[in-house]
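Form 7-S
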Amino acid sequence: MFEGLTQRLGGIFDRLRGRGALTEADVTAALREVRIALLEADVALPALKDFLEKAQERAVGQNIIQTINPAQQVIKIVHDTLVEMLGAETVALTRVTNPPTVILMLGLQGSGKTTTSAKLAKYLSAQKQKVLLASLDTHRPAAQEQLAVLAKQIDVESLPMVVGEKPAAIARRAMDAARRQAADVLIVDTAGRLSVDDALMAELAEIRDISQPAEKLLVLDAMTGQDALTTAKTFHEKIGTTGFVLTRMDGDARGGAALSLRHATGQPIKFFGVGEKLDALDVFHPDRLAGRILGMGDVVSLVEKAAATLDQAEMMQAAQKLQQGQFDFDDLLTQIRQLKKMGGMKEMMGMLPGLGNLADKLGNTDVDERAIKHQEAIILSMTPAERRDVGVLNASRRRRIAAGAGVGVSDVNKVVKQYLMMRDTMKQMKKLGKKGFLRQMGAHGLGMGGKGLGGMPNVGKIPQGDAPSLHNDDTRR
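Output:
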């Protein structure tokens, strides 16, 4: 997410820190470089001009040259101004006092509107809201069937399809069905076009008048750049949007249009998608995104994600085994699956302060979701006895496991090496006790700033040669 911009800004700030004392010319030059970085990220000129004026005003007004740490002060000014550009505060969904709350999903074809509708339904269902999904897209082939399939996957009700029914009639039927079922929320997935046209706007205006939605969310593809801004302005003028959902925020595009949306339309970004999975929808927090863009991490979102995705019972059981110094391949498999739920090592490291650059390096070395799947397949190819006792894994067994997992024997050997190192670490933890183990970690540089992460050797370390690593091939994000 904004990887190119993060790297550029990180380089600018690193140079500032290296200078110690700053002159006014240093600050002016740094802001000029920030301007170039934002331009390259495709930030709209009006938003960029406003950003620079406010940043320059704050820099002069606070007299940062005389502060104890002027470089950090410059970073704070850029951060605060960036937060203001993104919208300053998180804006929650509007709820009506007399349900159902109708959410109208708008967008062009290919923006991810139907998938986003299902993601939003899953998000609201997790909040104990009864949701009904309704597709009004009679133009795209199988669009209504697609939403019905997605609804079934997330265990949410969808409006039954009636062949030949017009969008306006479907909207009226959806409203009646939502009231009869006592649904809290009705999510209406409207039709899109390849581009904005009068027929589309007339159809959406009629549906809006029938459903009287509390929210009109425009789904925009973050990878379309300035086209997303143009689309946003048109929809807002014609239909009256109440907010935006940005999809493909995990892509490699410059993404600066996302930074300009609030400035261009006055409407907030409410959610953003970071993957194809139906739980890959995050609430938009301007301050957290600004922190991630500037390499400050996003620990709050990381903790929230862990609480929402990780199995608490499994974690408690694993903690008890670790305290007893026990660790087998089933435990390693549990860790791998928990890591997958969290979005992978790169996603986690991108949320940790100071580790954003390392996350980018991980992305450039074949470390990705497919590597995690390989690790998982290798362990699943073992018998229960082999998972419990690594000592029985002779050469012939390793060849059988490699064939079963569809990988090479060298990949099996790496997983075994990784397991042995982690098992030895856990035994050391039990032997030294918590305080002694932490001292040992510090002595060997195994803390967050050292060779590994959290005392687990090579987890999060850039693989070198044939060194064992939890992730060792392929790329994602």
